[in-house]
């Protein structure tokens, strides 16, 4: 058995092991890292990279091996798919070059990029779809990558494409399960809230009315006073239950679109507090926030709760709109007592609101003059259109 045959047998075994390794991993990020490591090991490359393509067929993720984090930072922004990398994206077949710097399609390297010569690349493909490309440079101990290197990378790329598809499907399944569990919890909370509202509150209200009627028939002032106190206690319990129900119901979105959910939330707030509340919702702006509708409702609920606890307001206006520059704005203003923003930032819950808006990728602004109401604004930048290739 010759040495060439030994090397072939060893590489075949490595490909089998690589396929098993990739098939066993379902975490998407880990799969991407494994692919580059295995490609370097199979071919003896010094540097390896994997470019994940976005819907516009430009590189949206670029994972590298062989370059330190410090060198990567000095190089600057990752490539998006020009030059030789773009050639591989367009051709959708393996590309092997003895010296990529001499190829007329090469754009050259940015400053601080390590010099690279020999090049081998192959597309990651599964079920007729291209997920990205493997890039390998500078074969150790040889001037160029061989035919066997290319053949091995093509097999690995096919295995990698299947592994990426499996990881994507697993990730989507996990997300679907989480969403299903979330909806089940919301439905259960909605059911409990409905039972409390339609059953317990109505029963307490009926008892209160009966006690009021009894008080009108009693001539003993002491007994009448005790009955009035009992009615007040029942009214307090009803208010507490309504507050509890209000907090229970992020499931308000379970069967409603965001515009309707905002209006319903404002109606419930007005009914519960007596604060006249007007909702103005731009449907286009609401549609853009549809994927974050639950977060928007939680943000609005917390803002209205702050108004109830602190503002002593008589009117409130909730506005969801698109600004002149295309940004989406959720504004809540009231005619209450106002507050000193710096002094009351913690007590008014502003820090929590700001953190919630920031976690949604937006910016937060509070404006108030003591004695003259307050305005809370959450703002999300306009979505950028996809860049044409």
For this entry, what is the oligomeric state of its chains?
single chain
Query: Unreliable segments (pLDDT under 50, ≥5 consecutive)?
Result: 384-389
Major β-sheet annotation: 5 strands, antiparallel
> Strand percentage, roughly?
15-25%
Terminal CA distance reads 51 Å
H and E order: HHEEHHEEEHHHEHHEEHHEE
The level of helicity is: 40-55%
Number of helices: 11
The mean pLDDT is: 78
Radius of gyration: 32 Å
Number of domains: 2
Task: Report the top-level CATH class of the largest domain.
Answer: Alpha Beta
CATH architecture of the largest domain: 2-Layer Sandwich
Structural class: alpha+beta
Q: How are the strands of the biggest sheet laid out side by side?
A: 2-1-5-4-3
Lay out the secondary structure:
Elements: H1 3-24, H2 28-43, E1 45-53, E2 59-65, H3 69-75, H4 83-91, E3 95-97, E4 119-126, E5 129-139, H5 147-217, H6 221-248, H7 258-273, E6 276-281, H8 283-288, H9 293-311, E7 315-322, E8 328-334, H10 341-344, H11 350-359, E9 363-368, E10 374-380
Parallel strand pairs: 6-7
Antiparallel strand pairs: 1-2, 1-5, 3-4, 4-5, 7-8, 8-10, 9-10
Helix pairs in contact: 1-2, 1-5, 2-5, 5-6, 7-9
Q: What does this 3D model show about the protein?
A:
It is a single chain. The protein is α+β, with helices and mostly antiparallel strands and 389 residues long. It folds into 2 domains: 173 residues, GAF domain (Beta-Lactamase, 2-Layer Sandwich); 135 residues, Heat Shock Protein 90. It contains 11 helices and 10 strands. Strands 2-1-5-4-3 form a 5-stranded antiparallel beta sheet, with helices on both faces. A hairpin with a 5-residue loop joins strand 7 and strand 8. Helix 2 runs antiparallel to helix 5 and helix 7 runs parallel beside helix 9. The longest helix is centred in the middle third of the chain and has 71 residues. The protein is elongated and about 115 Å long. The relative contact order is 0.07.
